[in-house]
Every structure is written in C-alpha cells, then in structure tokens.
Amino acid sequence: MAIAKAERLMNLALCLLGTRRPLSKRELRGSIEAYMEAGNDESFNRMFERDKDDLRELGLVIETVENLDGDTGYLARRDSNRLPPVSLDAEEAAALGLAAKVWQQARLAGAASGALQKLRAGGMPEAGDPYEGQHSAIEPRIPVHEAAFEPLMLACRDRRPVVFDYRKSTAARPETRQVEPWALECWRGHWYLAGFDRDRGAERVFRLSRITGKVRSRAAKYTAEVPDVVTVRETVASQAGESADRSASIRLRTGAGYPLRAKATEVREGVTEGWDELEIPYGHGLDAWLVEFGPDVVVVGPADLRADVVDRLRAVAKG
After folding, report:
1. Single pTM value for the model
2. How many helices (H) and strands (E) does the chain have?
3. Nearest to 214 by CA among 163, 279, 266, 180
C-alpha cells in the first residue's frame, strides 16, 4: 500500500510539473492509472484531494487556476519549485568531502558518494582544498563492522522498538532484550546504543559488538518518553569507571592487562614474582571491566570492589 501511494504521488507530481497549462481533475484522472481505477467520482475526488495535500506538505508548490470555462485546473510551475543554486566555497566543499570519508566503511558510503557527485555536478569546487596535507596520513573514519548497526540506525530514525539477543561481558550466554532505541554513538572505536529497556523499565546502553544474531523490529509504539538529550558517552564513561572518585588497588599479571596499565595512576612492578600492583581510578562499572581480564587480575582493595568481582565471576562460573 505504501509503495502504491508513493508511486501515485510521484505520477501526480510529474504531471503537474510537466504541463505548461493547468490540468483539470478530469485530465489528471485520465492520465494516472491509479485514478482511472478509482471506483467512482467521489472515491477519486477524495484520493486526489489527499494526494494534493500530501504533495503540498512535502513542499511542492501547486497552483489552482480557474480557466475561462469556469473549470479549475492545477499545475506546479518549475520556477516556483526549483531549489536555489548550491554555492560552496573551497573550505565548505573540503568539509563536506571530509565528512563523506567518515562513512567509507558503512553502507552510508554509497549515499555520501552520490551526494558529493551531485554537488560537484552543480558546481561544487574540487580543487584548492585548504586542508590538503593536514589529513593525508590520518583520515577520519567511523568503522561499522557490526551487522546490527544498520537495523538499529533505521529503528532509531523511525522510532520502532527492537528485539535482540545480548551477551553481557560477565555472562556466559546471551539474553533477549526488548528495547526502544533512542540514539547510536561511537566512542573510543566502539558503537553503542542507548534506549529504554522494557524488561528492566529503565534506560540502558548496549555495545553493538555484544549483540548476537539478528535485530528484529516490532510494529509498536514507544512506551517511554525519548529524552531531549541522550548522553551515551557519559553513561559509558561512568560504567567504565571514567567518572571515578576513589582509587582501587589490584594485582596484575606481568605482561598482561595493558588497558588497565594505561589507566593506572601508579604501577609497582614485581611486587611478587610474576605480578605487578596498580592503583587505578575506581568508579561505577569497574568490577565488570576487571572481570573481563579473568585470572590475570586480583583485586586487593577496597573490599566492596573485591566482593563485586567475586560475585560476577561466580555468576559466570554457574552459567
């Protein structure tokens, strides 16, 4: 049904744009197949009026003209529906080119490339890039390897709930999640989805690389209000201990756990044979992160962090 309506609107728009004189309803009905198939005049009139209103909402300027015979005609003049020419200076063109390169590894690459070609055909400058040489060695790119990215992006755009299987870092098996997706954001090389978790009744952030299987969309309305500002990075940073207000002491196997070493405020090497001792910022979510390093990490203190890590390891062992 949606495809049929889109085709009907396109045909009506082409008729109105392609005529040099106003066309009456009778003429339009005889030119568009969908209107020919309308059961009666009343059905055609309702369909035509809806289509005309829809085209006007989409921005098409449709004029209503009364001819000498008293009949009403319709047309869309090309000069009234022509966009102004695109005018970009060299810096603006370079910025657009740089933005298009960001999506080279995603399925948006085709759309970005096509948009640039159209702009260049319209006169966008190609030479004289003011950033030339500044980004030749390092180019901005957003890697999108996860199959879940595209269906989640469309679900965020269309405001459609989704269902997917998600494996937490501390879980042996994935769990099914029902989520109302809000926003996608890339942080430190990983994509995250923020949304409302229906089963838990609260906001949650999911790392796309931990989504297993297909993302299934659901034809239903959102049950929670979408916030004006979705703080994906802040939430992930908090869970990773970035907003730490305390310090934790851990023992780390020599030659292991380089991400932990990069965060450490102090490293005491060789405290015992084969082990180093580190002081690292302690914030919410640090226990989940430490569990990912398995037997290479031992928590010395504080006691509450040690207990949380032990509980998570026991949960993983139980499956």
Report:
1. 0.44
2. 11, 12
3. 163
